[in-house]
Amino acid sequence: MDGKQHYLALTPGKLAGLLQITDASGRFKVLALDQSNSFRKSLKAMHVRLGDGIEPGYEEIRDAKLEIATVLGGYASAVLLDVNYGARQAVAAGAIPRGVGLLVRVEASRDPGIAGEVEPGWGVAKIKRMGASAVKLLVYTDIEDAAAMDAQMKFVQQIQNDCTANDILLLVEELSYPKKGEEKKTPAYVARRPNNILESAKRIGPFCDVLKLEYPADLATHGEAGAAANLTALNAAAIRPWVLLSAGEKFDTFVKQVESAMKAGASGIMAGRAIFNEYFEESTAAARRKFLETTGIERMKILTAIVDRHAVPWMTRYGIRNEDLAAAVKPDWYQVGLAAAPSPQSKGEY
């Protein structure tokens, strides 16, 4: 099914979720707060700098996420959270403003190269029941490792089936990773990473509703012309609307990536650490709050302004109008799947 037909055929739960996590124009401005281990490591590093010997626990991680969501969430179209520290906690605390969508991570935190799995005790059905707008799934990909890719694609298809059964939108995020003995700056990895992103998008696209993709270039290595060519190829390969992830980049670098990605056809952003990384460098609770209320908000405004100017709304990408979506709904849509469903009849006065 091509892109346009996929969205014309979206089931009501998936379409409702898509509308909830995008802005009024159909662009994505998602604040990503679903980190687990990296969040803990950042807090631990903060305590090491402070020399207080504190080991961050559940309450501190939870409260940091709630504070960031409370201050910055109102500038986003949706907030992405994890089950461990953030999703139910944010709902209970009223940390997600009204009108802002909720995405929830389904996968357990695992190292690259290990087959993905669902967080124990968690799953798509529970995400749906808690009232979330969409499911987010992260998969590490290395297209040169056929066995690893096959395992990851089976996992993607499992989650896709679960999302279909529960009628909830699915976003899949790909992340490349260095091979054993390499680092992220190793020339061989830097050279093959763009193609890994491109081919991963091709593999994953048919099994999700939205793609969350890495920036397919290293500006220092590929230059602006090389980055532009890679973005054009990635946009052509993505049969779904795609959003750019921040991958912990420095904010100034991420801003450049966002502008070029939006101009190339991306439909928005899903960003976290690029916005709030320095929160953990502040020495007091008051200073951390002030960072969010000043620099954090300013960064959200800068990014969302770029998205407003350049991102391609998901409906525009496929030339879909609201009238088209309405016309795609059949009179017996609510009876689909029922055994021997009777023809629609109206007999009462109401």
What is the H/E order? HHEHHEHEHEHEHEHEHEHHHH
CATH class: Alpha Beta
- Domain count: the total is 1
**Residue share in β-strands:** 5-15%
What structural category arises from helix and sheet content? alpha/beta
Number of helices: 14
Helix-residue proportion: 40-55%
Q: Which superfamily, in CATH terms, is the homologous superfamily?
A: Aldolase class I
Low-pLDDT segments, ≥5 res: none
Q: What's the architecture in CATH terms?
A: Alpha-Beta Barrel
Strand tally is 8
Radius of gyration: 21 Å
Q: Summarize the biggest pleated sheet.
A: 8 strands, parallel, barrel
CATH topology: TIM Barrel
The general outline is globular
Estimate the mean pLDDT confidence: 94
Cα separation of the termini:
39 Å
For the biggest β-sheet, the strand order reads: 1-2-3-4-5-6-7-8
Write up what this structure looks like:
This protein is of the alpha/beta class and 350 residues long. The protein has one domain: TIM Barrel, CATH 3.20.20. It is built from 14 helices and 8 strands. An 8-stranded parallel β-barrel has the order 1-2-3-4-5-6-7-8, surrounded by 6 helices. Helix 4 crosses helix 12, helix 8 runs parallel beside helix 9 and helix 10 packs parallel to helix 12. The two termini are 39 Å apart. The model has no long low-confidence stretch (mean pLDDT 94).
